[in-house]
Structures are given as C-alpha cells and as structure tokens.
Write a structure and sequence with these properties.
The complex is a heterodimer.
Chain A (H helix, E strand, L loop, with lengths): L3 E3 L3 H26 L2 H6 L3 H30 L4 H8 L19 H26 L4 H29 L14 E3 H7 L1 H6 L4
Chain B lengths: L7 E5 L9 H10 L25 E6 L9 E6 L8 H5 L6 E3 L5 E3 L9 H5 L6 E2 L5 E2 L5 H4 L6 H5 L5 E5 H10 L4 E3 L9 E5 L16 H31 L11
Parallel strand pairs in B: 1-10
Antiparallel strand pairs in B: 1-8, 2-3, 4-5, 6-7, 9-10
The chains are: A mainly alpha, B alpha+beta.
Chain lengths: ~200, ~260
C-alpha cells in the first residue's frame, strides 16, 4: 500500500463537517424563507419550528467557523509569488496544458475562499442575531435584513464552487474530508511546498 | 390584483368625523380585544397609537390657525391595505400575511413565526404584536365583508366618516363631491384605506409619498433573484466545466 500523509487532523475533519452540514441546512432553510418553499417547511413541521432550527443552526455555524480559524486562518493570510502566478493560469482549471506553479498546503483560491467565508460568515451571523434579537430597532432590523441577504448571495455562489472543486473537479480530494489522508506521491505533486516544509521531500 | 372591480376599500372623510370613537369600540367588540390601560397625556386621543389590542384609532389632530383657532381634525388610523404591501413582501412565512379576494391584507396568526420583519417594512408603522408574539392588525373585517356585511367600524360609524364599498366607486363619488385630495389613490399601488381630504395630507398628519423602505425594495428586486441565478449559475458553470474541460488528473500535474 502506498505511503500516506496526513493533511487534515480529525478535529479539523469533524469541525469541517459541522460547518458544512450547518451551512447547507442554513442555505436550504434560508431559501425556504426567501421563496416560501412550503415543502421544506413541512419537513421541519412548519415554518415556526424551522425558524428555531435556522436560528440555532446559525449559532452552531458561527461557533464552528470560529473554531475553523485555528486550522485555516494562518495559511489563508499568507501569499507568495507562486500564488500570483496561480491566478495567472487560473489554477490550471481552464486548461490542463498550462503549468501550475508549486503550491503549499492550500492554493490561493482556497485561501481567498476561506477569507470570503469568514467575512461573509461573520456578517451573516451578526445580522442574523440582529434580526433574531433586536426586533425593536427598525434601523438595525432593516440593515441586518439587507446584510443577511447580501451575505446569503455570497454563500450560495461560493459554497457550490467549493463543493465542486473539492469533489468532482479534483478526484481524490474528497478523501481528505473523510480520513484526512493523501497518498504521499499525490501530495508531492499537488502540495510540493507543504511536503517540503514537513520534511517528506 | 390591485385595483380591479372587486377591490373593496374604506373611505375616511375626517371632516365628517365627530371623534366619538365608536369605531374603536366596535373593532374591539368584533375582534374580542381587551381594553388597554393608558394615561391621560393631554389629548382625547386614546390609546396614543395602534396597539396589539387596538386595530384602529382616531387621531385627534389639532391644527389651529388664525382663521380657525380650534380646528380639530379626527383622522382614522389603521392598516392601509396597500396593494404593494411592504409587510407581505418581506414576510418569510407563507400565508402569515395574505391578500383576501376583496383586496385586504389579512393575517393568519398560526402561520406567523414572530420575526417582526413586517413591523419594520411597513411604510405606515401599522403591524403590532400581541401577547403571544404574533402579528395583529386591522384585517378589514375580512370575515364580515366575506359574508356581505360591513366592517365593524364602518357599521357603527354614525356620521358616514367611514364608508365601505367598491374602491373605484368610493373614489369616484369622493371626487365628484369635490375633495381636493384622495389620499392613497395611487400610493403603493393604491391603498385599501383611502382618505378624502379638503387640504394637504400633511395637515391631517399623513405621510407624504409613503414608500416601502428602499433596502426592502432593493432586496426584493435584486438580491432575491441573484440568490437563485447565482446558485443556478455556478451549478451550471460547474457542469459545463466538468464536461468541457474536465477534472484535474494526476497526469496533468506532470506537464
């Protein structure tokens, strides 16, 4: 059996699934509120209970997002020349013939995605708490409602891209969110700078 | 639906109102609303504003001038039953606020989820919440008018300051009688509570050019469609990418 290298720790995988699960449920219930999707409401026994679920899932989501910072935030804030070059070749996604520069543990697309989720996540959580808890203040309510929906648009556009790139577009990547392991030979090709940094190449 | 033939309305004529507040009492009676304990704050207007147990009030507008030092305008305040209703637009719970066949904006408290977005999106600050945190407001007595009766407030009004009927007819008659302004004829797609004024609406304490908050209009016009188009767009783009360019293969990495 090929030698494997651990890319994600088990607490990272668990937290990512909590983040992903709450996020997807929040998006589904969010769409149900936005477009009066009664069949979604009936799954939760009505919109009243769905509201409670949505609110508390929001709490789970933001706590999970904060916890994820220990896994991703440091990497997401560091960029080098290879990252610039990565954008110039669109990460190799628009053509398989271009040369993709060597990457570290995460490519800049992933890093910027994470920062976008952090910013939009904090915005959607704060505005969510505004709608939930500050009902008496019209300015807060209407501003929160607007921010909540702008952030929602960011989520529904960014999250499916992340899911596609983490599954179909990059075979083998999904495995990392199951057991955290990558074959060393694959990792050497995909994340050479990280593998060098951990001293396996 | 709007201003079609079936749309009913209440026409308020402040100059005909004697401020007896029979309408307030009749409303409470029909809707089984409790009394509210209030304090004398130097006016006969009581309660001071709409409340969970007060679907309509008479505003006692004092507008003294040199010619008429005791001019007192009694203006019925209640839900305006907007054709383009901010409350209905923003409400996330299907059926909690709904349009009746007569054009009224009615509510179903069992479906209300208590988010209070309607309160904040109403151009007229009308919806209130009851003790159980459910939306409540004037519903144009949809249960009465559906049975060919008049709304309770209109039924009890002794002077005709409140009139109920076909919206188009009420407007036509008021215009023929020479009223300068029919407030609510065009606002927000046409209101279901309309006012026959002899003077500027401002004098009667009415909001000029009422609108749904711009953030709500922006959300409704752009953000709602963007969320669906955005999601659909990226899913379609991913599918096209998968078919046209295809996933990364290990071999590619060696190029």
């Amino acid at each position: 059996m090929a030698e494997m290298v651990r890319k994600s720790s088990s607490d990272e995988i668990l937290n990512h699934w909590i983040l992903a699960g709450s996020c997807i449920l929040l998006i589904i219930t969010g769409f149900a509120f936005l477009f009066h999707l009664e069949f979604v409401g009936s799954v939760f026994g009505g919109f009243n209970f769905m509201k409670t679920v949505h609110n508390w899932l929001g709490v789970v989501f933001i706590l999970s997002l904060f916890y994820s910072m220990r896994h991703y935030l440091k990497d997401a804030l560091e960029y080098d020349d290879d990252d610039v070059q990565w954008f110039k070749v669109a990460g190799g996604y628009l053509s398989h013939k271009v040369k993709v520069p060597p990457m570290g543990k995460y490519n800049p697309g992933q890093k910027l995605y994470y920062l976008a989720i952090v910013v939009a996540g904090i915005a959607i959580a704060l505005s969510g708490f505004g709608i939930w808890l500050l009902k008496g203040n019209t300015t807060v309510m209407l501003l929160s409602h607007l921010v909540h929906n702008v952030a929602f648009c960011i989520f529904v556009i960014a999250v499916p891209v992340h899911i596609y790139l983490g599954t179909l577009a990059n075979p083998g990547t999904f495995q990392i969110m199951v057991n955290g392991m990558v074959p060393l030979e694959t990792a050497k090709k995909k994340y050479p700078k990280w593998i060098k940094a951990v001293g396996k190449m | 639906m709007a201003n079609d033939k079936n749309r009913k309305a209440i026409l308020v004529t402040p100059e005909d109102c004697i401020g007896c507040r029979g309408c307030q009492v009749a409303c409470k009676s029909w809707n089984q609303l409790p009394g509210i304990k209030t304090k004398n704050n130097g006016t006969y207007q009581n309660p001071p504003d709409l409340a969970g147990a007060a679907f309509n009030i008479i505003r006692y507008n004092e507008v003294p001038s040199t010619e008429n030092p005791v001019r007192w305008l009694f203006v019925s305040r209640r839900c305006m039953h907007c054709d383009d209703a901010g409350c209905m637009k923003i409400c996330p719970a299907p059926g909690a606020l709904y349009r009746t066949a007569e054009g009224a904006v009615a509510f179903d408290r069992d479906k209300c989820i208590g988010c209070k977005l309607c309160v904040n999106a109403c151009p007229f600050d009308v919806p209130r919440y009851d003790a159980e945190n459910k939306v409540t407001k004037c519903h144009l007595c949809f249960d009465r008018i559906g049975a060919a009766m008049q709304p309770a407030c209109v039924k009890t009004c002794p002077t005709g300051a409140l009139k109920f009927g076909d919206r188009a007819e009420l407007i036509g008659t008021a215009k023929k009688q020479g009223f300068k302004t029919i407030y609510g004829e065009q606002d927000l797609g046409g209101l279901g509570t309309i006012y026959a004024f002899k003077d500027e609406p401002k004098l009667y304490g009415m909001k000029e050019n009422p609108t749904i908050p711009y953030s709500v209009i922006f959300w409704h016009t752009y953000l709602k469609p963007l969320s669906v188009i955005g999601l659909g767009g990226v899913v379609a783009a991913a599918a096209i990418h998968y078919l046209a360019i295809g996933p990364h293969k290990e071999k590619d990495e060696e190029v």
